[in-house]
Amino acid sequence: EKNNEKNNGKNNGKNNEKKNEKNDKGKTAKSSLKKTAASAPSPPPLTSTATPIPRGCVMKVEERKREQCIDLGPLGTKHVFHLKAKNPKEKNSALELYYQVGPVNNVRLRSLLDLLDQVLNEPCYNTLRTKQQLGYSVHCGTRHTHEVLGFCVCIVSARAKPETLDARVERFLREEAWRVVIGLEEGEGQEEKEGEKEGEK
């Protein structure tokens, strides 16, 4: 029993020594941080007067960017808008061909437009980007603008003018895209016929 008491006393003494060492290290670290913070340069004093913004940096309300709604007219009307790049050294051309389809709350139109996006996305990129190499950025997709459904084809090109891009996209939609849509309709009709035959059996 005496030996156990001695051993316990030794262990407790060692533990207390370790705790004291940790406390000493913690105190040393805190004091060094305080010295470092005290020796750091103080920030410049805050002044009550602020530098006023020059008048030339504040745009007038009528000069700020606005969204403009334009009446596109009757069905089949075509509008072409030419916009110059803000950077005068810009060498790239860009085209956005946009078709309005109908109101955004029309569930059937929205579903058909999403389907059109899925079936035309790959052919659009493959024809205009891979084969014809018109631009480094080519994509098509749906648009929801001011509660109106739309479909657009966008190209950014360093080698072709917007007029050329427009002609190529129109040709793609008129020829290849049309064949994709017709093939999809024929495939759906064939599946319906096969379903009817299975029902008769």
Textual characterization of the structure:
By secondary structure, the protein is α+β, with helices and mostly antiparallel strands. The chain has a domain of 116 residues: Cytochrome Bc1 Complex, Chain A, domain 1, CATH 3.30.830. A three-stranded antiparallel beta sheet has the order 1-3-2. A hairpin with a 2-residue loop joins strand 2 and strand 3. Helix 2 crosses helix 3. It is elongated, with a radius of gyration of 36 Å. The N terminus is likely disordered.
Blueprint (SSEs and pairs):
Blueprint: H1 2-39, E1 93-103, H2 107-131, E2 137-145, E3 148-157, H3 162-200
Antiparallel strand pairs: 1-3, 2-3
Helix pairs in contact: 2-3
Outline of the structure:
The protein has helices at about 1-40, 105-130, 160-200; strands spanning about 95-105, 135-145, 150-155. It has about 200 residues and is an alpha+beta fold.
Describe this protein with a few key phrases.
201 residues; alpha+beta; Cytochrome Bc1 Complex, Chain A, domain 1; three-stranded antiparallel sheet; 3 helices; 3 strands; 51% helix; 15% strand; disordered N terminus
Helix coverage percent: 40-55%
* CATH architecture annotation name of the domain at 85-200: 2-Layer Sandwich
The secondary-structure element order is: HEHEEH
Query: What is the CATH topology assignment of the domain at 85-200?
Result: Cytochrome Bc1 Complex, Chain A, domain 1
Main sheet: strand order: 1-3-2
Q: Give the percentage of residues in beta strands.
A: 5-15%
Write the CATH homologous superfamily of the domain at 85-200.
Metalloenzyme, LuxS/M16 peptidase-like
Q: Which structural class should the secondary elements be placed in?
A: alpha+beta
What is the terminal-to-terminal distance? 97 Å
- Estimate the mean pLDDT confidence: 74
Q: Which class of the domain at 85-200 in CATH terms?
A: Alpha Beta
Give the overall shape, derived from the CA principal axes: elongated
- How many strands, which pairing sense, and closed or not: the largest β-sheet? 3 strands, antiparallel
Biased composition (Low complexity): 29-40
Domain Coenzyme PQQ synthesis protein F-like C-terminal lobe: 115-176
GO molecular function: metal ion binding
Protein name: Coenzyme PQQ synthesis protein F-like C-terminal lobe domain-containing protein
